[in-house]
Known about the structure:
single chain; 182 residues; alpha+beta; six-stranded mixed β-sheet; 10 strands
Amino acid sequence: MTSRARRGEAWENLLDAVHDRYIGENRAWVVRTPPRFRVIKRTKGGQFIGVYQKQDGGPPDYTAFSRGLCFGFDAKDCAGDRWPLSNLKDHQAKAFNLLNLHGGMAFILLRFRGDGYLVPWTDWSGTPIEHTLAFRWHRWKNKLPGAAASLSARDLRSHAHKFVAPDFDWLAVAMRARLRLD
Length: 182
C-alpha cells in the first residue's frame, strides 16, 4: 500500500509537470513554495544537513499568475471515500483568506479517486457560500452543530470543478469559473 505522503508527492509531481507545460506554453507562471528549512550543519561540496521547520504561516504550496490574475492553492490527495477537512491546516486557511482579501483566487487542487477537483475557498466561482470550502472548514473548525468533518464524492461532484487526466488542465477550469463572475 502506498503511504499518504507518497501519494501526495506523486500528485505534486504530476502537477509540477502540468505547471512546466503552462510555463512552456506561456499560459501561466507557476511557483512552488518550498517548506521552511533550517540548516543544522554544512558539509563538503555545498551540501548540508537540515530539518524542516513547523509552518505557522506562509504562502500556499503554489502561486500562479495568468492574464493578470493571481491564484494560490495547495495540492491535496485522497485515496478514501471522504477528504477530511482536518487536512487543511490553520495557516493554510489564513493564507487563503489573505489571498482572497487582496484579490487573489484561493483553492485546493484535490486528487480524489484519480480525478482532479478544483475546490474554491470562497465564492469566486459562483458557488453558493454555504458550499464553499471556507464556509465548511470554518463551521467544522468552530465545531458548529451539523458541521461536516469531510468532503464526500457527492460534495465534490456538486460544488467543485472537475479536471481530468491525462492533461489535468486546472488553469482552464479556473479561468472559466472566473469568467462567469465578470
